[in-house]
Design goal:
The protein has 552 residues and is of the alpha/beta class. It has 18 helices and 17 strands. The longest helix has 18 residues. The two termini are 46 Å apart. It binds flavin-adenine dinucleotide. Flavin-adenine dinucleotide binds next to helix 2, strand 7 and strand 15.
């Protein structure tokens, strides 16, 4: 019998349902994945449950920066800047292929919120707090230097600029790298499994979770026991807490953040920029893979958490601010090729608007023993995981003192990074460039592969079958797809198109002609019936239309 993805998943589920775990983690975003890795590396048996795809919540919808948090300096959150700055350096070492240093331009303009002196001083303080190496510290640019660095700036308004150090990432791939590393450490991490209810013992303590399988609707609901359960459900954390204990007051304030993607040719920035918007807020414009993405908004959100979308008003706001800063590009609504909208799960603070609420995380412990964590940043996932695991260990060690070692994630390189040094990774990239061009792909695919698959990039290239009829790009896509279904828990087309490869954000225009091929591979691997194929095709089109804002 042919081994299908469907068959492999069923095998895993059989194993899971017969175990009692030390820890169940609810939520497969960056927070939950970080917690699963920390727990597994301390020797615990761990089950991570994700009700949709890994990173399908906020963790694929961020600005994709591992930042020291310059904006937190404005809010005088010195400790947060200090902490995330140090974390950033650790992440750069743990995930070299996914966390890249990059300069960011901060334009200083007439009528803007930044003055030359305050920016120079503020970013200097930021560099010190964030532990930026002396050679990478901020450089102040004169008016003519700023215009030379970024000719699209408004020559009428620009007074100068500041160039400072940021780090870029891919949030969904970072989450997946954490999931894969956690699995290497022994964790069971499964997507499309929803924690639908809690199981309690005779004194009201949680002793497990009831689980619903959304990938195999025929599978009955099943139950798994655990000594401890952590809720890392991001924007859904309140819902999970309410599943345990109905409450009147919510703990979270949800704030929506939208990004727009335009072709690079329409906003050809020479480097990323962080600039003043029309209302005094600031936004990023970041070139990536032949596009530039712009974001973000920050508006209170009270609608369905499961269907967050960019609206026309979000697009109008972002386009207006970008046009003000880069008027010669004259961006229009018709330039938008893709978009994403995510929810910041902020901790509710009475009488504060979303933009002023602290991004610090908070831990809540219920009478039932449920530990919930919310808030925080992508950048701080490791510290958040450590904080939660220290509590879990306290709980578990009441019965078995001294069983678990302290946190060691500072030393665990993430999946795909076996590069001892930055230079070793650059050597790998050069060799990859040769292989990529040898199979007829553009040079830029080498850095794309490196970011997505790190030291496993060769494995993906090797899977390119020499189908004479198709071009190298299609062969690469199919190779990635087969790899993703077998090795990266891909269940639905959007898992692959959006979260494993970023194509639905950054290569939207190329998707139409490959979609039928992608769906055919899915049908074979997942043994879809003809009806399922039609349904999945329709769902994929709806999702792509939403991203490209064609629904509006
Ligand atoms: P999520 O990623 O939302 O994960 C929660 C998961 O739980 C979801 O996948 C959901 O499906 C799952 N789930 C929910 N209920 C259940 C259940 N019952 N059973 C099983 N699974 C369940 N941070 C940075 O460091 N840098 C940035 O540049 C940055 N930019 C941002 C820009 C925007 C617009 C936004 C909104 C946030 C940004 N952040 C940034 C913050 C960062 O993205 C978030 O803090 C982080 O992604 C939150 O991750 P999470 O795992 O807590 O939540």
């Amino acid at each position: 019998m042919k081994t299908t993805a469907n068959f492999l998943r069923k095998q895993t589920l059989d194993r899971v349902s017969s175990r009692c775990y030390d820890l169940i983690v609810i939520g497969g975003g960056v927070t939950g994945a970080g917690i699963a890795l920390d727990a597994a590396s301390r020797g615990m048996s761990v089950l991570l449950l994700e009700k949709a795809d890994f990173a399908s919540g906020t963790s694929s919808r961020s600005t994709k920066l591992i930042h020291g948090g310059l904006r937190y300096l404005k809010q005088l959150e010195f400790r947060l800047v200090w902490q995330v700055g140090r974390e950033r350096a650790i992440l750069h070492r743990l995930a070299r292929h996914l966390v890249h240093p990059e300069k960011m331009l901060l334009p200083i303009v007439r009528g803007g919120s930044l003055g030359k002196f305050s920016t120079s001083l503020g970013v200097w303080v930021y560099d010190i707090l964030a532990g930026v190496a002396p050679r990478d510290r901020r450089a102040m640019l004169s008016r003519s230097e700023a215009l030379a660095a970024e000719p699209l700036l408004d020559a009428e308004r620009v007074l100068g600029a500041c160039l400072y150090a940021e780090y870029r990432t891919d949030d969904a791939r970072l989450t997946l790298a954490l999931v894969k590393t956690a699995m290497e450490q022994g964790a069971d991490c499964i997507n499309y499994l929803e924690a639908s209810a809690f199981l309690y013992d005779e004194v009201g303590a949680i002793k497990g979770v009831r689980i619903k399988d959304h990938a195999n609707p025929d599978t009955p609901v099943f139950e798994v026991e655990a000594k401890c359960v952590v809720n890392a459900a991001g924007p859904w954390a309140d819902q999970v807490m309410e599943m345990d204990q109905p409450k009147k007051q919510k703990n979270l304030f949800l704030s929506k953040g939208v990004h727009l993607v335009v072709p690079y040719a329409r906003l050809p920035l020479r480097q990323s920029a962080y600039f003043d918007m029309q209302d005094g807020r600031m936004a990023f414009a970041i070139p990536r893979n032949g596009t530039t993405y712009i974001g973000t908004t920050d508006t209170r959100y009270a609608e369905s958490i499961d269907d967050v979308q960019a609206l026309e008003s979000d697009a109008a706001y972002l386009l207006e601010g970008t046009r003000r800063m880069f008027p010669s590009a004259d961006l229009k609504r018709s330039d938008v090729v893709s978009s994403w909208a995510g929810l910041r799960p902020l901790i509710y603070e009475p009488n504060k608007p979303g933009s002023e609420i602290s991004r610090k995380e908070e831990v809540f412990i219920a009478d039932s023993g449920l530990i919930s964590i919310a808030g925080g940043k992508l950048t701080g996932y490791r510290i958040m995981a450590k904080r939660v695991l220290d509590l879990v260990v306290q709980n578990l060690q009441k019965k078995a003192p001294g069983k678990y070692p302290p946190c060691k994630t500072q030393q665990i390189r993430l999946w795909g990074n076996s590069f001892g040094t930055w230079e070793a990774m650059q050597d790998f990239l050069r060799a990859l460039e040769k292989r990529v061009t040898a199979v007829g792909l553009p040079l830029s695919r080498a850095s794309y592969l490196l970011q997505n698959y790190g030291d496993q990039s060769g494995k993906v290239l090797e899977a390119m079958e020499p189908e004479a009829s198709s071009d190298p790009e299609t062969r690469l896509l199919l190779a990635e797809l087969r790899y993703a279904i077998r090795e990266e828990s891909v269940v639905r087309p959007m898992d692959f198109l959006l979260r494993r490869t970023g194509r639905a954000y950054f290569e939207m225009s190329a998707l139409a002609h490959v979609l039928p091929l992608v769906l055919t591979v899915f049908q074979q691997e997942w043994q879809w019936s003809a009806e399922q194929l039609v349904e999945e095709e329709a769902l994929t089109h709806i999702a792509l239309d939403k991203l490209s804002m064609r629904h509006a």
